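Handout, section B. The chain below has 177 residues.
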Amino acid sequence: MAGDLVHGDNMKEQKTNKTEDAAGIVGKIRVITYKAGTKEIKRKTEWIKNLIVVGSDTGKNLILKRLAGVNTYTLNITHADIGTGQNPPSSSDTTLQTPVARGTIGGYYFSGNNIVTLQFFFSDALLPNGTYYEFGTFIDGTGTVSTGRLFNRALFGTPYTKSSGEDTTVEVQIEIN
């Protein structure tokens, strides 16, 4: 029957038809800088790909556990950290390399049935002036930096420099295809 899996002599599974489900989950981020206390956009970065981690009790692993009925964690992304670490993201990461500040989810919107964009706000007072290289979101975190379970991590394509009088919003787009 088309679509059934068959086992060959070497016990490797093979599809018997040409239709393949290219299902996956991918993410990207961008930074929007506003004049503090306003909605006046000062600058906006291009979208940057990020890594949805897959270590034990993080990212993709938590999705699989929820699908299997293991409900230890809610799968709600509640917080995000921004930091100064410059190590490339790894699928086994559990936190940022050097987190500096934590933001809460300030909003979200859907694009069709398979894309959600989460918005994390860092006020001028919350985010110290400086240069930032890394960003990540956390499931079931608290207001304390690095708490919760890491979902995704990214390095900014160009370091993000925050100056006095600027509010920062980081948008995280997650797509299931």
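Note. The chain is about 5% helix and 50% strand. Compare this with the example in section A.
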